[in-house]
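Lab notebook, design round three. We kept the backbone fixed and only want residue identities now. Task for the bench partner: fill in a sequence for the structure below.
Input structure tokens:
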């Protein structure tokens, strides 16, 4: 490896480099590390320990201080790669395999030298290899290893290293006809390329899970393949090497094998499940494959059991809503509905409610399509329409198993709705979901299905409408300085001004992958049926009349809960506008 005090001549200051600052004398003289500190730092970096983990061991408060000291000690510049802009022409002719092998990245061209950020500044062999491969003078700079890895992902995309290896293998073993292989031919071809394709697919899956994606979209395009992750409810395109298109069929076939689907069938939709382990935790993935114009499209729903905790206290309910909902879910009988569009967190709310009331004295049975998560201590039934096991049919059978609480995944038709009302009238507490815009609309929806209004009004005890909004990233959020004239008309500007409330908007940083948001939380509107609401429902009053009555009874609307969370600094005005509409 050479002398750890090895130095390189460095030209003047550049915009991508931070100026040097002298470290305090009690750490090292003139901001430099001694031989023992340098050796310890070199060992830690080689073993890929995060800088911030071992910085305190060497007397530094944070990673940036240690990186500056390493740069000073080695007479190198320190490059901060946060939000750095790079001319992609620099990458032309730069060997991808060496970027991955040594975890380096070219960031600028300086006269006759190529400036390269190193994740390991002690790896002098890397500098020699890069110089030999490019035929250029290499000017190394010290950077945070995590920033270098993020840069590699950002510009080269998921699976770039494996694709590079596959291309090399293709030259040696002629895998160019992989796209035309099907059935047994593809299985035979796997002998030549299985390990690499397995690795590539695993990289796509593990990268999505690490990014907290709820869904993975692999879409066939006329001129390539598009990979998108749904993160915090919003689809984000992921960079991928253009060469990945050559291995599209291999990727699809590998996923079919993992999901135990027919790899030869490309004419009809197929559904399956994959169970994998990522960094010691078990993750379920639901796979849907549909034939499209330019090839098969794949959408995978990620069900990460380790990161999901079903607790009403943790899903963002306001205190008053939480207390009233707690009383509802402990009623001896009746119907409790959760409404909202697909992907609004209805299943999480229902599972959290069941987990709250589940004990040895309560028998709970659910009928779902599909079963998203397996709940300990709760009996779950998977709907199978092909054999006649619908929501309505399973609900009839469930009542013969002496349940106390029943969950019906969704009330979709009159038969299911009537069975649910009869179950509540015979002493059962029934949970279910509906697709309505707000809580008041649930009464009209059930009546429109054909349920008698008096049955709806006498059995529905409460309706929770909800939406999901993205939470602002606490690392980069900034005050929203918009004037009152630029704010929505119903935003409580005067209240915020009177209370000195600071409203924030998203910015974007490395912690949130540039989106400005990290994580999601719910907006809630809980309608608890009272005498006035029951009378209105019996008389088939319009939804807005029921809503007004609920507000008079103390209900806060989705929009109001959204503005409250904006004033708490946890989400933005734009997020509330995205998922709610102004109250009439």
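Proposed sequence:
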């Amino acid at each position: 490896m050479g002398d750890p005090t090895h130095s390189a001549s460095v030209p003047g200051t550049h915009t991508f480099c931070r100026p040097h600052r002298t470290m305090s004398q009690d750490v090292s003289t003139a901001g430099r590390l001694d031989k023992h500190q340098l050796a310890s730092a070199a060992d830690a970096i080689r073993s890929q320990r995060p800088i911030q983990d071992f910085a305190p061991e060497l007397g530094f408060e944070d990673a940036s201080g240690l990186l500056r000291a390493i740069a000073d000690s080695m007479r190198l510049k320190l490059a901060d790669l946060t939000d750095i802009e790079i001319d992609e022409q620099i990458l032309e002719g730069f060997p991808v395999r060496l970027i991955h092998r040594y975890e380096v990245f070219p960031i600028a061209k300086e006269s006759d030298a190529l400036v390269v950020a190193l994740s390991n500044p002690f790896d002098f062999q890397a500098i020699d290899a890069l110089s030999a491969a490019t035929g250029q003078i290499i000017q190394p700079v010290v950077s945070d290893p995590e920033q270098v890895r993020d840069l590699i992902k950002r510009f080269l995309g998921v699976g770039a290293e494996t694709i590079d290896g596959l291309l090399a293998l293709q030259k040696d073993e002629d895998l160019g006809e992989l796209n035309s292989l099907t059935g047994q031919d593809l299985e035979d071809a796997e002998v030549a390329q299985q390990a690499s394709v397995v690795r590539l697919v695993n990289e796509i899956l593990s990268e999505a899970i690490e990014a907290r994606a709820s869904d993975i979209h692999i879409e066939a395009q006329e001129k390539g393949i598009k990979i998108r992750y749904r993160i915090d409810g919003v689809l984000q395109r992921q960079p991928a090497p253009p060469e990945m298109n050559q291995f599209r069929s291999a990727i699809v076939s590998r996923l079919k094998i993992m999901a135990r689907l027919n790899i030869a069938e490309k004419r009809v939709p197929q559904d399956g499940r994959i169970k994998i382990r990522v960094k010691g935790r078990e993750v379920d993935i639901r796979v849907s494959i549909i034939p499209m114009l330019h090839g098969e499209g794949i959408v995978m729903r990620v069900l990460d059991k380790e990161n999901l905790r079903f607790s009403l206290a943790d899903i963002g309910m306001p205190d008053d809503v939480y207390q009233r909902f707690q009383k509802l879910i402990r009623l001896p009988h009746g119907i409790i509905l959760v409404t909202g569009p697909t992907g609004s967190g209805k299943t999480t709310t229902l599972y959290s409610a069941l987990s709250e009331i589940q004990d040895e004295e309560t028998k709970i049975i659910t009928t779902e399509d599909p079963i998203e998560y397996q709940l300990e201590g709760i009996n779950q039934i998977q709907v199978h329409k092909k054999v006649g096991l619908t929501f309505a049919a399973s609900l009839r059978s469930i009542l013969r198993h002496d349940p106390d609480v029943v969950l019906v995944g969704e009330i979709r038709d009159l038969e299911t709705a009537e069975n649910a009302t009869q179950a509540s009238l015979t002493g059962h507490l029934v949970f279910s979901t509906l697709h309505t815009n707000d809580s008041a609309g649930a009464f009209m929806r059930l009546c429109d299905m054909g349920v008698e209004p008096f049955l709806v009004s006498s059995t529905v005890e409460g309706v929770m409408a909800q939406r999901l909004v993205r939470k602002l990233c606490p690392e980069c959020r900034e005050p929203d300085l918009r004037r009152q004239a630029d704010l929505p008309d119903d935003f409580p500007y005067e209240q915020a001004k009177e209370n000195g409330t600071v409203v924030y908007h998203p910015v974007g940083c490395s912690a949130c992958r540039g989106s400005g948001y990290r994580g999601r939380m719910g907006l809630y509107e809980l309608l608890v049926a009272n005498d006035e609401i029951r009378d209105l429902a019996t008389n088939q009053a319009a939804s807005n009349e029921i809503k007004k009555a609920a507000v008079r009874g103390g209900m806060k609307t989705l929009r109001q809960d959204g503005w409250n969370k904006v004033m708490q600094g946890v989400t933005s005005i734009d997020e509330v506008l995205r998922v709610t509409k102004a109250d009439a």
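Keep this in mind before ordering anything: The CA atoms of residues 33 and 73 lie 6 Å apart.
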